[in-house]
Structures are given as structure tokens and as C-alpha cells.
Amino acid sequence: MLALLSVLVFTCVAVTAWAVLPDASRRAMQRRLYSEVSEVKRPPLWQRVAVALEPWNRRLPTGAYAANVTRLLEAAGFRLSPLHFLAIQEFGVLTGLLAHAGLAGVKHMSPVGLAFFGMLGFFVPILWLHNQIKQRRLTVGRDLPEIVDLLALCVGAGSDFMGALGRIVREFRPCPVREELGILLQEVRMGKRRRDALRAFATRLQTPATSTFARTLIQVDRMGTGMGEALTILSEDMRLARYHWAERFAQQAPMKMLIPLMISLGSAMIIVAGPILMQFIKGGLMSGPQMSAESAKGF
Predict the structure, then answer these.
(1) Which of 71, 72, 158, 218 has the fewest CB atoms within 10 Å around its CB?
(2) Cα(31)–Cα(217) distance, rounded to whole angstroms?
(3) What is the number of other CB atoms lying within 10 angstroms of the CB of residue 189?
(4) How far are the Cα atoms of 83, 94, 260 from residue 60, in angstroms, in the given order?
(5) How far is C-alpha 68 from the chain's CA centre?
(6) Sign of torsion over alpha carbons 153, 158, 162, 168
């Protein structure tokens, strides 16, 4: 009787669980739906502010500003419109004014302080953008010779240039050069001439190495010379230029390390010799009156 009751209880629990819990297909469908819903995220705050301020910024005379900022954004690898970047700068101005109000107090705010913090908030995004451009150019100068070596190897093995470029875009590690070469490949596949795509590639990156790379391939395209030989010569030149750059950078390292080394040694000397010097000064000041009193007693 007890065994029959146990079987009945187990059966009821199993049937209830089977009815309530979803099966494997339903669980897979729920995971897929939840993953798709979780991928849809709200845009960040600066993007929402940019969208809100875009109708007002369109009324401003931003012709020269838009051209300059577009060039900087392309060099930094950001796919933003100039009006969105202007909204970021306006948000920076507001942040600077609030920072001045928080530091000085609302009653002690001055026009000079407001102007200084406002200009600081306006130009901080520009400085950050220039820093990103510098870091990206260093990465491009390091990775482009290796990519040219791989292109020369693929072309020398019998592949055409576009096939070799597609393989580099698929299999090379993620880097700015790979992203820009992927854009170049897409432009050529959509019908743009290869020389025009190469010019756009050099314009976006704005480095001497990419300009040399684009100029060489455009000349090969015009003159009809061998692509493999041109890439081999170009890879040797780029490898030699990178070697000279690394050698020059290594020669600058001791001078850059000198100032931090002097600061650290000075701090160590102060920490070690400071207490001894203080004791010596105190002992010298105290020994003077004692010696004068002893000499007076002797006389």
C-alpha cells in the first residue's frame, strides 16, 4: 500500500512538472527570444541628447566646422555625424559650467570662471579626439607592414589582389587597418573603382604609410605592372621604415626615462636623508647653548 501511494505521488508530481515546465523546443525558443530582446538596448545618453539638439544645431552655420570635424572623426575611426559631435561638445560645456558652480558655489560664480570652464568643456572632446587619432596612427603604422607582407605572400602564391584582400579581412586580427580594408573591399564590390577606393582609404587614415600604400597600388593599377613584385618591394620598404621608427623610439626612451628617474631618486633621498638632516640640525642648535654654558662655568 505504501509503495502504491509513493508511485501515485511520484506520478502526480511528474505530470504536474511536465505540464508546467516547457519542453526543450519551448526552452530554446524562449532563450532565442530573450537574447534578441536583450540585444535591443536603449541608446546612450549623449546620443539621445544629440538627437534632441539636432534640429537646433542644423540652424547654426557649421559648414567649416562640419568639414574639419568629419576629417577628424574619420581619422579617429568614429562613425559619427558632425552634429552629434557638436552635441557632445555642448554637453561638455554644460558639464564645465556645472563643475564651476559646484567648485565655486552659486553665489561666488564669476564670468571669467564661467568662460574658462565652458571653453574647457568645449575643447576637451577635441583633445580626446586628437589623442585617439594619435593612438590609431601608431596602431596603423605597426600593423600595415605585416598586412602588406601577407598580401605579397598571397599574391605571390597565385591569388589575385581582391581575393588576397578578402582573406586578410576575414582572417587577420581585429585592428583599424583591417576595418578600413573591409570598407575598401565593400566599396569595390559595390562598383567603386579600385583607385578611388584606395584614395578614400588613404584619406580616412591620413598616415604616410597608408598614403604610400595607396599611391603604389594606384600606380600599379594605372601602369599594369606586376602586383606581386610591387607588393614585395613595398613590404621591404615598410619593414625597413618600421625598423628605423623602432630604433628612433628606442633612442628616445632614455631621455624620457630620465625625468621620472630623477624625481624618484630625489624622493628616495628626501625620505632617507630627511630625518637624519633634521636630527643633525636639531642637535647642532641644542649643542650651541650647552657648550656656551659649560665654557662659562669653566671660567
Answers:
(1) 158
(2) 48
(3) 11
(4) 10, 18, 47
(5) 20
(6) negative
- Give the cell for residue 144: 600595415
Tens of pLDDT, residue by residue over 43-78, are: 666 677 777 777 777 888 878 888 888 888 888 888
H or E element in which residue 103 lies: helix 82-104
Contact assessment for residue 146 and residue 239, using Cβ atoms and an 8 Å cutoff: no
Nearest to 76 by CA among 123, 131, 121: 131
Which among 180, 162, 167, 90 is positioned nearest to 126, based on CA atoms? 90
Q: DSSP string of 52-96?
A: HHHHHHTTS--HHHHHHHHHHHHHHT----HHHHHHHHHHHHHHH
pLDDT of 9: 54
Write the pLDDT tens digit of every residue in 218-228: 988 888 778 88
Predicted confidence (pLDDT) at residue 229 exceeds the cutoff of 60: yes
Q: Please count the other Cβ atoms lying within 10 Å of the Cβ belonging to residue 88.
A: 19
Nearest to 277 by CA among 285, 13, 228: 285
CA atoms of 258 and 264, how far apart (whole Å): 10
